[in-house]
Design goal:
It contains four helices and four strands; from the N terminus they run ααβααβββ. Strands 1-2-3-4 form a four-stranded parallel sheet, covered by helices on one side.
Length: about 170
Amino acid sequence: TPAEGGGIDAGHGSAVTGLIVAEQNNSVGVSGVAPGVKFIACKGFNNGGSGGNSVLAEAIRYAANMADIMNNSWASDADLPSEAILDAIDYAMTQGRGGLGCLPIWAAGNGEGDETAHYGSYPWTVGVSLLENSGIHDDLTSFDETVQISAPVGQWSTDASGPIGFNNPEP
């Protein structure tokens, strides 16, 4: 994978992948939104949780050459947009998979309502925001007319349980 820092650690991306691909009817308790789908792991951030725009753009291009759909459940705290990342998104849609294209799904950021604070607002992407259990947008998410999908916020996942996992719900 493009990023330095060793192998794929069991972080946020791993938890999100588990929510997408979890098997049906296996007595574990959850089913993914796309059980049975094949996936690849592509790491754009180091184990400390940071990654430069050029490394992230390289990761996007790398994944776009193999994936039909790309999940990007991350946001940037840098000034947006990065031309390198926008160029990589354009590449994914127009040249990914040998010209067939790769659809980027993108978290609607941690912009606290700022519609410009996420790549999910870019025309080639599908933006996903968070909803509280009450159906109101979560305070951390960005939301506006560019968000196409909203999903409930939660801490449940299929990864390790307890304080080291993502499925340890907060009280």
